[in-house]
C-alpha cells in the first residue's frame, strides 16, 4: 500500500478526488491530520492550525516552535547520502556520519559567530558538504541561501548582497564533464562585493586553494553534541531567488514550519518516499529542486547528490547512477527525457525504481510514450510548481492515473484552478493558474520588503485574495491539466490566447528541429501584432518554413501560423532548462541583453542572435523586415 493510500485509510476516505476535495475545503482538519500522521515534532505545540486564513498573510500553526533540521536528521539505518561527481570519487555518508558532520559544522559555525537570523550563503555545487552546512545552519536558526558555482560573480552578488550574509562557503573549482573549471577569481569577486562577510569557509573541491579562509577541516575539527534550536513556525529557513530574467532576482523567504510540513506531505504522499527509499534528482544548488531533494531526508529516505555535466560521457550517466544506487524515485527534466528519446537510448534495468518524476517545463506526449515503452511499471509523475512555493502545485501520485500529455491534477492541500480575466473559474480552456486557499509553504515574504508591497504585487495584484502563479493552465473536467507556458509569455493573438507549450509540442517533433521558441510582439494600435517563431536546426538541416507553417495550421489552428520563422544558432534557456521567451521578447522590443538575463543563461551566447535580429528590425523601420527571413545568426 502506498503512503497516500495509508493516509487516506487513516482518515476514512476512499478515493483521491474525495481526499483532495477534503484537503482544500477543511484546511484545519487536513493539515492537523498531516502533522499527526507524519509525526511533525513541535517543540512548542501550536494553538491552532490556521490563526488567519485570508491571503496574503495567512498564519499557520500560531505559537508553534520546531526545527527543520531536527526532522531531516531523524533517519536510521545505513546510508543517508550518496554523492557522484566528475570532480572526485563517490562519497557516502551513513545517517550517523551525517549527524556527526552536522553537529561538528554547527559548532564550527557557532565559533564563527553564527546565530539565529544570521545569513549563511554557499557558492557550492551539489555535494555532501553543501548539505551538511545547510543543515548545520538550519539547526542554529540561521538563514541559508545558495548559488551554483557556474553562476558568474555579478549574478551571485545580485542575489546574496540583498540578504547581507556573514559567512560564505565556497570551493576553488569543479570539473564539468572532462573540463576543469577554476572559480578562484569569482570567489575573490564575491568577497569584494559582499561587504558584510566576516568569514569565508573553503570547501576542498576542485583544484587550487582559497587564501585567508577557514578550511572545511577546521570548521568540522571539534566533536560536538547534535542540538537544534527551536524556532517559530514562520522563522526563515532559507532564501530562494527568482530567475532574474526580468530584473533583479526576488529574494523569496521560506520558513522552517512551512517547508517541513509541506515537504513531508509532498514527499510522502506524491512521491511515496519513506525509510529505505532513495531519491535521485539531478539539480544544481540554485534550483528549488535541490531544496526538495534535501527534504527526502525528512521522510527517512536517503538522497543521491549529483554534480557535473548531466549528459557526460553520455545520456546514460544518470540512469547508470540510478541503477547503481537503487533509486526508488528518479527525477529528470523533460528536456533530458526528450534527449534520451532522440538518441534512441534504452535505460538499464531499474528493479527498485517506482516513480520517475519530471518537472521544470512541459513534457510532450512523445516523452510520456518513451517512458511507458522503456520503464514498464514505473509511474511517470509529471509536476509543475516553482520556487515561489518550493513544492508542486499540480502533479501525480501513486493513487492517480497517468494521462499521456497531461499532469494528473492538483496535489493535496493545493486549491488550484484556472481563472479567466474576470476572476471566474474556467474548465476546458486556458486560464491563469491560481491558488484560492493558503498553503503552508507560501513564502514568509520577500527579503527587504518590510511592508509586504512587493510580495502582494507579485502574487495578489490581479485577483485580490487569490494567489496568481504566473502560468497558463487548462484543466479538464476530470481534474487533469496541461501547463501551457508562462502567462507573461503567453501569446494573445486577435484576442485568442495561445500557449507556448502547444507550439513546441508540434514544432519540435519535426525532423531537423532541435529546439524552438515563440514570442508575440503586440501591436500598440490594437492589431494582431507579430508572431515570431525561432528554431534551432540540427547539423546539416535546412529551414523548411512551409512545412512548419503547415504542421502548425493542421495540428493547432491558422492563428498558430507565425508571421516569421527564423533559424537561430541556439534557443536561450536558463540554468534549470526553462526557455526564456520573455527576455527574448524584451530584446526584440529594444532592451539591452545585459539588463535582460544577467547571469542566468545556460549558454551566455544564446541571446546574441536575437540582439542582432532586433537591431536589423529597428534599422528596417516601421515595416520591419520581410515576413520570413533566413537564419538570423548566419547573416
Automatic annotation (TrEMBL):
Broad class of enzyme this protein falls into: ligase
Keywords linked to the UniProt accession: ATP-binding, Ligase, Nucleotide-binding
Region of interest (Disordered), ranges: 612-635
GO molecular function, one term: acetoacetate-CoA ligase activity
All copies of domain AMP-dependent synthetase/ligase, residue ranges: 81-438
InterPro entries to which the protein is assigned, alphabetical: Acac_CoA_synth, ACAS_N, AMP-binding_CS, AMP-dep_synth/lig_dom
EC number, UniProt record: 6.2.1.16
KW ATP-binding (keyword) present: yes
Name of the featured protein: Acetoacetate--CoA ligase
Amino acid at each position: 500500500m502506498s503512503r497516500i493510500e495509508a493516509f487516506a485509510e487513516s482518515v476514512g476516505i476512499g478515493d483521491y478526488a474525495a481526499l483532495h476535495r477534503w484537503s482544500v475545503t477543511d484546511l484545519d482538519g487536513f493539515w492537523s491530520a498531516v502533522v499527526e500522521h507524519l509525526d511533525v515534532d513541535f517543540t512548542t505545540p501550536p494553538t491552532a492550525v490556521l490563526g488567519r486564513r485570508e491571503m496574503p498573510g495567512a498564519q499557520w500553526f500560531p505559537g508553534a516552535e520546531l526545527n527543520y533540521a531536527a526532522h531531516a536528521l531523524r533517519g536510521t539505518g545505513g546510508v543517508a547520502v550518496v554523492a557522484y561527481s566528475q570532480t572526485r570519487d563517490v562519497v557516502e555518508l551513513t545517517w550517523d556520519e551525517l549527524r556527526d558532520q552536522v553537529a561538528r559544522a554547527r559548532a564550527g559555525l557557532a565559533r564563527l559567530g553564527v546565530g539565529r537570523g544570521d545569513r549563511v550563503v554557499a557558492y557550492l555545487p551539489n555535494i555532501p558538504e553543501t548539505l551538511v552546512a545547510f543543515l548545520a545552519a538550519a539547526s542554529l536558526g540561521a538563514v541559508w541561501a545558495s548559488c551554483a558555482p557556474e553562476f558568474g560573480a555579478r549574478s551571485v552578488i545580485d542575489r546574496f548582497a540583498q540578504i547581507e550574509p556573514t559567512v560564505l562557503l565556497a570551493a576553488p573549482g569543479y570539473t564539468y564533464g572532462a573540463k576543469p573549471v577554476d572559480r578562484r577569481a569569482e570567489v575573490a569577486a564575491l568577497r569584494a562585493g559582499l561587504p558584510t562577510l566576516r568569514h569565508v569557509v573553503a570547501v576542498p573541491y576542485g583544484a587550487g586553494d582559497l587564501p585567508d579562509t577557514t578550511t572545511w577541516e577546521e570548521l568540522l575539527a571539534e566533536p560536538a553534541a547534535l542540538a537544534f534550536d527551536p524556532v517559530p513556525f514562520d522563522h526563515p529557513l532559507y532564501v530562494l531567488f527568482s530567475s532574474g530574467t526580468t530584473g533583479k532576482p526576488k529574494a523569496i523567504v521560506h520558513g522552517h514550519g512551512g517547508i517541513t510540513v509541506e515537504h513531508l506531505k509532498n514527499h510522502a504522499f506524491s512521491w511515496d518516499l519513506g525509510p529505505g527509499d532513495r531519491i535521485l534528482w539531478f539539480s544544481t544548488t540554485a534550483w528549488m529542486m535541490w531544496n526538495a531533494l534535501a527534504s527526502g531526508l525528512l521522510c527517512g529516505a536517503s538522497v543521491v547528490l549529483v554534480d557535473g555535466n548531466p549528459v557526460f560521457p553520455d545520456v546514460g550517466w544518470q540512469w547508470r547512477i540510478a541503477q547503481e544506487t537503487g533509486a526508488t524515485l528518479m527525477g529528470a527534466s523533460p528536456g533530458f527525457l526528450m534527449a534520451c528519446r532522440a538518441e534512441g537510448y534504452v535505460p538499464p534495468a531499474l528493479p527498485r525504481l517506482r516513480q520517475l518524476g519530471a518537472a521544470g517545463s512541459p513534457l510532450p506526449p512523445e516523452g510520456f510514450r518513451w517512458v511507458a515503452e522503456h520503464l514498464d511499471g514505473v509511474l511517470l509523475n509529471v509536476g509543475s510548481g516553482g520556487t515561489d512555493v518550493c513544492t508542486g502545485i499540480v502533479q501525480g501520485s501513486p493513487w492517480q492515473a497517468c494521462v499521456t500529455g497531461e499532469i494528473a491534477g492538483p496535489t493535496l492541500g493545493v486549491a488550484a484552478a484556472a481563472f479567466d480575466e474576470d476572476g471566474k473559474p474556467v474548465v476546458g480552456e486556458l486560464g491563469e493558474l491560481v491558488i484560492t486557499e493558503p498553503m503552508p509553504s507560501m513564502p514568509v515574504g520577500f527579503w527587504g520588503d518590510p511592508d509586504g508591497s512587493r510580495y502582494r504585487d507579485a502574487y495578489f495584484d490581479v485577483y485580490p485574495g487569490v494567489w496568481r502563479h504566473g502560468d497558463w493552465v487548462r484543466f479538464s473536467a476530470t481534474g487533469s491539466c496541461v501547463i501551457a507556458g508562462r502567462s507573461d509569455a503567453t501569446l494573445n493573438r486577435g484576442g485568442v490566447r495561445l500557449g507556448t507549450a502547444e507550439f513546441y509540442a508540434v514544432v519540435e517533433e519535426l525532423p531537423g528541429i532541435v529546439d524552438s521558441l515563440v514570442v508575440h510582439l503586440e501591436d500598440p494600435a490594437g492589431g494582431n501584432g507579430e508572431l515570431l517563431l525561432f528554431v534551432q536546426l540540427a547539423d546539416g538541416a535546412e529551414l523548411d518554413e512551409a512545412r512548419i507553417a503547415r504542421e502548425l495550421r493542421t495540428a493547432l489552428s491558422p492563428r498558430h501560423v507565425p508571421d516569421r520563422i527564423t533559424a537561430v544558432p541556439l534557443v536561450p534557456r536558463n540554468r534549470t532548462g526553462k526557455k526564456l521567451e520573455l527576455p527574448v521578447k524584451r530584446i526584440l522590443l529594444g532592451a539591452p541583453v545585459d539588463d535582460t538575463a544577467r547571469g542566468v543563461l545556460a549558454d551566455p551566447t544564446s541571446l546574441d542572435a536575437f540582439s542582432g535580429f532586433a537591431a536589423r528590425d529597428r534599422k528596417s523601420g516601421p515595416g520591419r523586415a520581410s515576413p520570413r527571413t533566413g537564419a538570423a545568426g548566419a547573416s
